[in-house]
Amino acid sequence: MNRRLLIITGLSGSGKSTAARVLEDQGFFVVDNLPLVMLPDFMQRAEEGLNPNSGVAVVIDVRNRGFLTDYKKTFDQLKQDGYKLDILFFEAEDAALRRRYSETRRSHPLAATETVQDGIDRERQQLWMLRDTATKIIDSSNLNTRQMRDLMLDFLGEEHESLLIVNLESFGYRYGLPPAADLVFDVRFLPNPHYIDELRPLTGLDPRLREYVLSQQACRDFRYHLDHLLGFLLPHYCAEGKSYLTVAIGCTGGRHRSVSIVEDLYSSFPEPDVILRINHRDIDKG
Length: 286
What we know:
The protein has helices at residues 16-25, 39-49, 67-80, 94-104, 116-132, 145-156, 207-214, 217-239, 257-267, and strands at residues 4-10, 29-32, 56-59, 84-91, 136-139, 164-172, 183-186, 244-251, 274-280. By secondary structure, the chain is an alpha/beta fold. It has 2 domains: 4-156, P-loop containing nucleotide triphosphate hydrolases (Rossmann fold, 3-Layer(aba) Sandwich), CATH 3.40.50; 164-280, no CATH class. It has a 5-stranded parallel sheet, with helices on both faces. The chain is elongated, with a radius of gyration of 25 Å.
């Protein structure tokens, strides 16, 4: 077996969670704080349930009881079992760690009743031997989220211009805004097919209704401006490291105008280098 296994470890507050999110976006199956004793059995079970090409990333640190005493034996066994194991050790300067704890107002896991600096000092002392075994040491003191992403992609050997996943979602305003929407466009300014008897029972999935909506001059103008706006925005979102974007189109009931436009947008999206997904949230309501 050649499944890739990444161990994400290091100092608390040094960016392990950010790294885990990057790995998840790249298709890794990510587990946080899995007890070390369960790791070999977990990997065996993962062989049965995961895609053969999916890597596994496990965040393990001082929260994990027994980790520092047993990690070497466990990691050696996993390597003997054929896993491609790498250890990514995250750290940061004391000042950066203190600032992050101050911003989040959380206590250090090793200093619940002491100062954050006491916890940092204790954790560095406990982890120094593990640090020496790391495949790669990452100092996140001066890294922002985008730089962290690029660094992780460098390590994985991935291209930085990884494809953006764009979710196109139609919805009805009477049922509320989609909570995960990044961009929302209201198309209730278009003539409503609900008031045309032969079109009312149809949805935007029907070519007859879609032709009625898309043939309106106001709709053609809207699509023209929407294409140009998305063509401008998407490269900038990609450059900033955004992995997912939800574009929501809303009409009154979420069955006619919004569905028609989302279907048309899906078929002729202005940016080819994205992964498109489509969801008609309210098409079966009403």
